[in-house]
Design brief:
Low-confidence stretches: 258-266
Distance between the termini: 11 Å
Helix content: 25-40%
CATH architecture of the largest domain: Alpha-Beta Barrel
CATH superfamily of the largest domain: Aldolase class I
Radius of gyration: 18 Å
Number of strands: 12
Number of helices: 13
Strand content: 15-25%
Shape: globular
Mean pLDDT: 93
Structural class: alpha/beta
Length: about 300
């Protein structure tokens, strides 16, 4: 653990580095690799059924005896069943996204599960603290997948000024030691990364998807589906170009099926699925193991202790 780091102390991990709970992507192989390397691996439950989540929790426990988490998507119609799985297997940490997590707090707190909501604004960060969250992730629009309206650079110091009790974890645009150190200087005590772990040896996505990330430039990354009210940051491909053309027709949001948006699994054609990735994909040029990624960043942020 880093010296005097509250995120490490609360989560019982070596480095204050969390792996983003990417729906349809963050499964046991990636999660266990991150946790074994000293970070916090996180299963992305998304819209998956509770049976899938149960299997992934069991497999993660077989591969690692270190702490890990589950990211729960508040809009999953079977959310209650997922929560039961998390409690049944005593998952150490729950992160939440995609809606109001407050109704879950009493159930998770009653069994000692740590709660870390992912939020897009300082106001919501403060509200989560007031309701008893153990920490909070503020995510800037530089991130991949569904994005908010505020940048990481503005979110971190504004959120930090409001929080009095719990540590702040920063997400969005962080991929190496320098970007991690930058948000620590602004007030973060931990980081969460998704895109950097997409380009890891253990991530289940296809080699073609990984190649798209390491060869991308900033000009290759775009935001689509703004008309739905849930904009999505992706690497440009045939699917993204189709979505941009669709936007020009001023369509109804219902013309896009949510299940396709949130599922970009490994073995599909990389031209016909949403290749979710953050702006930082333009700076990632090498596929590394989770251990290499975490230890390199951990070494740099340790100098801030």
């Amino acid at each position: 653990m880093l010296k005097s780091n509250r995120v490490c102390e609360i989560l019982k991990i070596k480095y204050p580095i969390l792996q983003g709970g990417m729906a349809g992507i963050s499964e046991h192989k990636l999660v266990s690799a991150v946790s074994n390397a000293g970070g916090l691996g996180i299963i992305g439950a998304g819209l998956m059924p509770p049976e899938w989540l149960e299997k992934e929790i069991k497999l993660t426990k077989e591969l690692s005896d270190k702490p890990f988490g589950v990211n729960l998507f508040m809009q999953n119609p079977r959310l209650k069943e997922q929560v039961k799985m998390v409690i049944k297997y005593q998952v150490p940490v729950v992160l939440t996204g995609g809606g109001n997590p407050l109704p879950l707090f009493p159930y998770l707190q009653a069994v000692g599960i740590k709660i870390i909501p992912v939020v897009p604004s300082p106001r919501l960060a403060k509200k989560m603290e007031e309701k008893g969250a153990d920490a909070v992730v503020v995510e800037g629009l530089e991130s991949g997948g569904h994005i908010g309206q505020n940048t990481t650079l503005s979110l971190v110091p504004q959120s930090k000024s409001l929080l009095q009790r719990i540590p702040l974890i920063s997400a969005g645009g962080i991929y190496d030691g320098k970007s991690a150190k930058a948000v620590f200087i602004l007030g973060a005590e931990g980081i969460q990364m998704g895109t950097r772990f997409l380009a890891s040896k253990e991530c289940q996505i296809s080699e073609e998807y990984k190649e798209k990330i390491v060869t991308a430039t900033a000009d290759d990354i775009s935001v689509v589906l703004r008309f739905t009210g849930h904009p999505l940051r992706v690497i440009k491909n045939k699917w993204a170009e189709e979505m941009l053309r669709l936007e020009e027709r001023n369509p109804f949001p219902e013309e896009i099926k949510a299940e396709k948006i949130v599922s970009s699994l490994a073995k599909e054609d990389v031209e016909n699925i949403p290749l979710m990735a953050g702006v930082c994909a333009g700076a990632i040029k090498e596929i590394k193991s989770c251990k290499e990624i975490i230890e390199e960043i951990g070494k740099e942020i340790s100098s801030l202790s």
